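Technical annex, item 7. During the second reporting period the consortium partners agreed on a shared format for inverse folding records so that results from different sites could be compared directly. Each record opens with the tokenized structure and is followed by the designed sequence. A conforming record, contributed by the partner at site C, is shown below for reference.
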């Protein structure tokens, strides 16, 4: 085998290795392109989900503000009711005190004996 044949064989062998490398490189590129496409699809889904979550958060924030306003209103109403009940309780205490004093005065006027007779007359037999 001559030197030229050896050189040609080496060139052919190098060319075949280069073609194999080229094919492997192309497969790697195709694989990378597939991965990039999958990632773009996933990113699109993530963006859609993120948008939906933003809308949900906005809705929840509005609902929270609405509920806070309701709670503030109820707190105000309860405070007003407490004042009203306290005033009524104070008036009732005063009225009972006045009634008790009146009752004492009547007992003194009529005497306890007369009051007992009257109480007995009211009881059914």
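Designed sequence (site C submission):
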């Amino acid at each position: 085998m001559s030197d030229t044949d050896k050189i040609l064989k080496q060139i052919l062998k190098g060319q075949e290795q280069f073609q194999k490398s080229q094919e492997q490189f192309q497969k790697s590129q195709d694989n990378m392109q597939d991965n990039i496409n999958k990632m773009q699809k996933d990113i699109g889904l993530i963006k859609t989900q993120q948008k939906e979550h933003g809308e949900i958060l906005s809705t929840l924030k509005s609902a929270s503000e609405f509920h806070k306003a309701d709670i503030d209103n109820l707190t105000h109403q309860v405070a007003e009711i407490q004042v009203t009940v306290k005033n009524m309780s104070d008036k009732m205490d005063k009225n009972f005190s006045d009634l008790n004093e009146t009752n004492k005065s009547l007992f003194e006027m009529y005497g306890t004996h007369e009051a007992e007779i009257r109480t007995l007359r009211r009881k059914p037999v």
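The chain is about 95% helix and 0% strand. The longest helix spans residues 3-122. All partners now use this format for quarterly exchanges.
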